[in-house]
Amino acid sequence: MLPRPPRRDASALVRAGLRACAEDSGATHFAGGTYVAPPADRSGRARHGVMSKVLAKESHAAGRQEDCEGGSRRRSWGLLVTAGVGGTLVALYAVVTPFVTPALRKVCLPFVPATSTQIQNVLKMLENRSGSLADIGSGDGRIVIAAAKRGFKAVGYELNPWLVWYSRYRAWRDGVHQNTKFYISDLWKVSFSHYTNVVVFGVPQMMPQLEKKLEEELQCNARIIACRFPFPCWIPDHTAGEGIDTVWAYDLKHSRGCETKSLEITPETES
């Protein structure tokens, strides 16, 4: 009979199997029946855990930074858009107001540029005339500039500041800025008593009031030239052109008793 193999303890068999598995996985020893990883493996896993946490924190911080940068960019764009819209509105207000404000007055005096034919008709009515000239409602200054080129000391009165500034530029460009002046003025607040020639670009609604104002202020040797619309009561001494280019010239000494007044004054002066 063959001898029986020696009996082995079951726990020993288990430890042997675990040891073999541990050796295959790179473990070195067991402590109290428990697998203990090598020191190098433990430190590697520790470093891996720490790096994972650091990377997670950095990723979270980067995400928050990107959100902050995105919010900052959006705020910057919002400010730029707001500033652009505000600046556009201010510019529109500055440009439109001078044109709209006259229309809101009791008597509207719109800007309608004089045609070249109309300018020639006005200059024709100024032939053999001298002295100072006022253009009521001078617009872009073309009548004032044309009169200055004929030797007149010409002044333009206009309510629209943009047109006044442009008129001054045109006078400088044409070399007559020394003989011209342009004022931002309301014609009802200006006295025309020292002018011997007055050009008027008016509308029918204002002509009766302006006729009365000029008759009270101007001297008897003054000539008034009305463009597009005549005065309601005065009888023109001269007329030139037709249609919208028509101009009417009024010598104040022939209207409203100027000659009668001079005759009445003469005897008193002689006595």
Summarize the structure.
The protein has 271 residues and is α/β, with parallel strands linked by helices.
Task: Please provide a written account of the structure.
The structure is a single chain. The chain is of the alpha/beta class and 271 residues long. Helix content is 50%, strand content 15%. It is built from seven helices and nine strands; from the N terminus they run αββααβαβαββαβββα. The strands form two sheets. The chain has a seven-stranded mixed beta sheet, covered by helices on one side. Residues 98-107 and 259-271 have low confidence and may be disordered.
Features:
alpha/beta, 7-stranded mixed β-sheet, 50% helix, 271 residues
In helices, the fraction of residues equals 40-55%
Helical stretch count? 7
Q: What kind of sheet is the major sheet? A: 7 strands, mixed
Low-confidence stretches: 98-107, 259-271
N-end to C-end Cα span:
188 Å
